[in-house]
Design brief:
Elements: E1 2-7, H1 12-26, E2 32-37, H2 41-47, E3 50-52, E4 54-57, E5 71-74, E6 77-78, E7 84-85, H3 90-97
Parallel strand pairs: 1-2, 3-5
Antiparallel strand pairs: 1-4, 6-7
Length: 99
Amino acid sequence: MQLVILQVPDCPNAAVLAARLAPLLTARPDIVLARQVVTGQADAERLGMTGSPTLLADGVDPFAGPGQPPSVSCRLYRDERGRVAPAPSAVQLREALGM
């Protein structure tokens, strides 16, 4: 599986997402994680970034809602309790990635 974190420059929430992914990836050396900085709307549209940070798993955003448009804006998530969070929780990441 190929994971990519798409982010705007200096996005603090991208670091939160990477930190939450790190322990999950230690047991899965077959999963490759990359990060890509996106600076313009055209690139967000081309790459499928729906806010920063966006996680793509094999090119698909498992957290995108139906019809969620591409954007270079800040993205917030809802945790399993419905609270606003800077990134998906470890539980949500495990579920979305089938781990």
